[in-house]
């Protein structure tokens, strides 16, 4: 690890895919500068084709960058010893389908040169962690999507890595499976692992990540802790009942009110006086106030806003 | 030894030396200590995977059926019968061995890339050349087991055949059987050479391209004498192209001892050694190239 606590760093990382049809090339990753700190969970989010998976593939040495550098634990990614400390969960569980979970983990553990005894211990521990003890001898091809993904996570953990790289860990899972996978990631986070995560499921990213980077057309358009990205909560939502059509019309004309819809009154950048005025207006027109909230922007809001701004 | 053969051996030796130097410089010597166990692990998973594919057992059953059916052909003289059994059996081993070699080796690396099972492997401390060599070794083991089983079936059939002609009746060590096993072993060496070439092609091309190229290499490699005749009859550019092809294509014909064994002819030990040594050099150069190409491949 680097002295400043940075586990993973990229500088000017660029990947251009060239082919006979596109001699100029397509920029998949464009001048990417990332820094993931020790013990943090960092998520790269972005629309399809924004360069998330390409970035991960470069970091794992599966493809080479066109320009720029990347280092993990202070060493170049070309250094094979780096991979002793990395665990990688691919987007889909790309494992040999004719073997059982136990056999697969045994094979991956062998790649780290573990003795038979250590392999047995590691396999038992990992199968317990991912809840696959009872199905340890089920061939991979007969496993459900959720079981496959949990086994894929187990293979990523076989070397007890310091850095986990997870590509769409909840992709294709049902809500229960997604919940289970999120719990597992939180457990790994609790154990102090540094996690680099790519995902489309922003609610889960929000639940597990310390910092988020938004990638668009290969460029890192913004990054930071969610609280920084989201900024101050500026919206007030008043949940009402019994508001008549005339009442709703009258409330919507009050200062600070954005809209009145389905018994919800939304206000933007409203001060206390404006809020009291709206509350009075609701009561006077026969409405009843059930709840007043100031919701913080979600990652989804930040994402949509950021991508929208960049597109403009 | 002819001057041409001498020059050829010199060229191969120089190419091998250059290849070794390049590999040591690019992949570093310290890697070797780590490489052997990794190669073995990749090879063992390749063998385990192949063992679970029913197609290999089906091929063995088919070859055994062909060999057994040869026992029931119309009556021939004992010598003709044995000749037919040996020649037919060895041909079956060679042809099915070659087909297996093409269809096993051509899929090994492209399928790993296509199915992306290579991702979790290369994300672990496994060097790319270890992966290539592991896959090659795995294919060799699978093919070795297949050839051994097919040879065993042939030997068994020869032993139970009433018409089997023994060179030296009463001898404890039957030289004909030994020659049959020798010819099968030489076929296996040819498979080893062809498999290395297939692995090389598969590191740069698709499965389809690999299979087509492998069949062409097999055809050309089995027609080396025709090739030589063509070289002598041509001049200019065509002559150079044919010389290039002659030296690039594996000399599979040199491993073919079916005719000598089936007809109880003497076997050239020197010829066999030359074929094996040339084959070993060819494999070395081809695998170095495969490792270098695969090292730069984007997966």
Assembly annotation: heterodimer
As a percent range, the share of strand residues of chain A is 25-35%
Cα distance, first to last residue of chain B? 46 Å
The total count of helices of chain B amounts to 12
Average residue pLDDT of chain B: 86
Beta strands of chain A, count: 14
| Tally of contiguous helical segments of chain A | 10
Shape of chain A: globular
The CATH architecture of the largest domain in chain A would be: 3-Layer(aba) Sandwich
Helical residues, percent of chain A:
25-40%
What is the radius of gyration of chain A?
24 Å
* Class derived from helix and strand content of chain B: mainly alpha
Q: Main β-sheet of chain B, in a few words?
A: none
Order of helices and strands of chain B: HHHHHHHHHHHH
Unreliably modeled segments of chain A: none
Helix content range of chain B: over 70%
| N-to-C span of chain A | 39 Å
* Average pLDDT score of chain A: 91
CATH class of the largest domain in chain A: Alpha Beta
**Low-confidence segments of chain B, ≥5 residues, pLDDT <50?**
none
Brief write-up:
The complex is a heterodimer of chains A (312) and B (299). Chain A has 312 residues and is an alpha/beta fold.
List keywords for this structure.
heterodimer; A: 312 residues; alpha/beta; Alpha-Beta Plaits; six-stranded mixed β-sheet; four-stranded antiparallel β-sheet; B: 299 residues; mainly alpha; 12 helices
